[in-house]
């Protein structure tokens, strides 16, 4: 079993760290939201009060942080992972960040004697709690092979998709499909309700046909009930749409549906829904149609 330093015990990191501890790994956690420590300790892990204490004996370091400034700060900063982890340790960054930051972290790691994988995940809070995440991994194939027990403990599908940064590009594609699907499900609900049809029953049928998806499986009931506790915050999806539109610009490709979806998610933030789940795109579509809360 492996000694793991785990940094960032939020909505996703907290259940992931618990799965690793329950699988028998020695998990030492550090996070800013210290309320997460009770769960880690209850599941057999240990909480500490600094990055240094979390990583000083680690064979594997895991980060699950909001965005690239936090990852760069935690990993490259003065009191950070590369300053304190034992040389040769392997960093798995599960955060969703821009590909160029993943590449920069991997290059800095190589110079400092560390192996690095970018390994963003999909599956949401439910997937993290159930340990069935999909994980898209960029970096060296041998490094990927060396840490499959970690992926096994938190995920169901994990695939090495290419060099450093490739995991983030696949994750951008994932977020494009997820954001666009939420927008369409929201429009489907508004359409059915506007014509007096029970949207709950309607989505039950859709879920069993070609339109079926994990989003319909996991979220149709909460959307129809207008329950929008996160989950995955609109603020984070807005960050991801920025990664997608930047990547499209860099690749010189036109992605019109991505642009529209990015704009709808930006509208969600502008309307004050940034801290709600991304399924709150339904509120944006309702507001567009004058059907929102008065
Ligand atoms: P979150 O805000 O719930 O968790 C982030 C955690 O990082 C918090 O616990 C915070 O305390 C910690 N943190 C921030 N800065 C820190 C620092 N300097 N030192 C130590 N800890 C620090 O976010 P989340 O929803 O768990 O998302 C984490 C990442 O996973 C994001 O990149 C997100 O895009 C991605 N993601 C989220 C979901 C989801 O459904 N929530 C799904 C897939 C991917």
From TrEMBL:
UniProt keywords, alphabetically: NAD, Oxidoreductase
Pfam family, one: NAD_binding_2
Occurrences of domain 6-phosphogluconate dehydrogenase NADP-binding (ranges): 3-162
Name of protein: NAD(P)-dependent oxidoreductase
Coiled-coil ranges per UniProt: none
InterPro entries in the record: 3-OH-isobutyrate_DH-rel_CS, 6-PGluconate_DH-like_C_sf, 6PGD_dom2, 6PGDH_NADP-bd, HIBADH-like_NADP-bd, HIBADH-related, NAD(P)-bd_dom_sf
Family per similarity comment: Belongs to the HIBADH-related family.
Domain 3-hydroxyisobutyrate dehydrogenase-like NAD-binding: 165-285
Source organism (scientific name): Nocardia albiluteola
């Amino acid at each position: 079993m492996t000694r793991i330093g785990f940094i960032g015990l939020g909505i996703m990191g907290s259940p992931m760290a618990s799965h690793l501890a329950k699988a028998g790994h020695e998990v030492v956690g550090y996070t800013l939201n210290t309320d997460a420590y009770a769960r880690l300790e209850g599941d057999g892990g240990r909480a500490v009060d600094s990055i240094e204490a979390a990583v000083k004996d680690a064979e594997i370091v895991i980060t699950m942080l909001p965005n690239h400034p936090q990852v760069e700060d935690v990993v490259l900063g003065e009191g950070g992972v590369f300053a304190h982890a034992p040389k040769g340790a392997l960093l798995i960054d599960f955060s969703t960040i821009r590909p160029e930051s993943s590449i920069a972290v991997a290059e800095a790691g190589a110079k400092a004697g560390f192996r690095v994988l970018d390994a963003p995940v999909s599956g949401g809070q439910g997937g993290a709690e159930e340990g069935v995440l999909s994980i898209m991994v960029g970096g060296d194939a041998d490094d990927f092979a060396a840490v499959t027990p970690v992926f096994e403990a938190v995920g169901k599908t994990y695939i090495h998709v290419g060099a450093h940064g490739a995991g983030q590009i696949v994750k951008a594609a994932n977020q494009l499909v997820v954001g666009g699907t939420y927008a369409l499900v929201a429009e489907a609900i508004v359409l059915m309700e506007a014509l007096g049809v029970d949207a709950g029953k309607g989505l039950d049928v859709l879920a069993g046909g070609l339109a079926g998806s994990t989003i319909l499986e996991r979220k149709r009931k909460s959307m129809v009930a207008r329950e929008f506790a996160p989950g995955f915050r609109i603020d984070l999806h807005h960050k991801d749409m920025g990664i997608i539109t930047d990547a499209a610009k860099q690749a010189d490709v036109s992605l019109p549906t991505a642009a529209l979806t990015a704009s709808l998610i930006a509208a969600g933030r502008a309307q004050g829904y940034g801290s709600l789940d991304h399924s709150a795109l339904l509120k944006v579509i309702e507001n567009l149609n004058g059907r929102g809360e008065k």
